[in-house]
Amino acid sequence: MNRIPTFEQNRKRLIKKIIAVALLVVIGIVFIFAVRHAINEYKEQKYLETYGQAAMEVGGHTVTYDVYRYFYLNYRDDYIKEYTIDGVTDTDALDAAVRARVIEAIRGLYGTVSLAADYGITTSDGDVIAAAETYIESMKNYYTENGGNYAADLERSYLTEHVFEFLMRIDALEDKLFDALVASDGGIENNDEKVLTVLLGDTFVRAKQIFIENDKGEDVEANRAIAVKALEEYKGGESFDTLIGRYSEDFTMPADGYYFTYAEMIDEFERAAFALRDGEVSDVVESKDGFHIILRMPKDGAYITENFADLKSQYQSATFYSMLESRANMLSAVESSYVRSLSYEEIK
Questions:
Q1: Where are the domains of the chain?
Q2: Nearest to 213 by CA among 200, 201, 226
Q3: Nearest to residue 248, comparing CAs of 204, 209, 303, 191?
Q4: Which of 84, 249, 310, 313 is in Cβ range 3.0-4.6 Å of 213 for a Cys bridge?
């Protein structure tokens, strides 16, 4: 005769089933995590094999290949026309020019990192990370809302998620560093009276120019001759403003001319302008962009007062980027043997 299980026996059997099910669930969870971990390890390994290799050492920091590649391929696209004649590209010359520009750009990034470290600011700061993540999330939302393809656009720009996040952290780091530098005793003058003294002093100048641009394909010597003719006409008594209207191709110059300090203009223009006294005109000055004839002008106190907020911001920004450039120039920057071994065609 079969015995009817007692309540206690049923309870024990139920507990055993629950335990068995729980074990299966745990095993399933462990399995899922193991699979995910294996996938992540595989992805990390593939990343290290492709984009994660050391490409440069800059000021004691290791730069990964994907960061180097991003700059290299974008500068390559920018410069390639300059090194292509009749459909043939001088890849050796192009490669050398691009590498030099990449080193300069990456050194600039780490100039920011290095200077920020002096003020206890790093790319690992919570607010720096949060600012970068917020921007990235807003970009993803924009693409989602407008039917774009975020991942495809990253790829078209030669960006990986890692590089994009890194660049956004540098941007956030730069903003935080600027705020620290313009704070009281931060390194960039913020007191209005003292800034006004700077604007009225010798490190801030006003100038106008007649600019003859060397557009692609133009005869450089013919442009030089135009600049020489304009200067001769000025010396012959023609007004500078008339000659600006007649010859100059600087269509964005303000009517009052440029007010600027160091590190705002191209080097040749800056050196010539600061070498002049008020009312003096330079000889023809040649730069990579074309030819300049520069008139140093006395600063207008009323103009400075009226535009003080903009000029103060301009002065602070110019000082900030001059500090970053100075720090960047102090950093060693060396390509890794891996990058040096890659040919022009292999960086892709």
A1: 66-187, 192-325
A2: 226
A3: 209
A4: 249
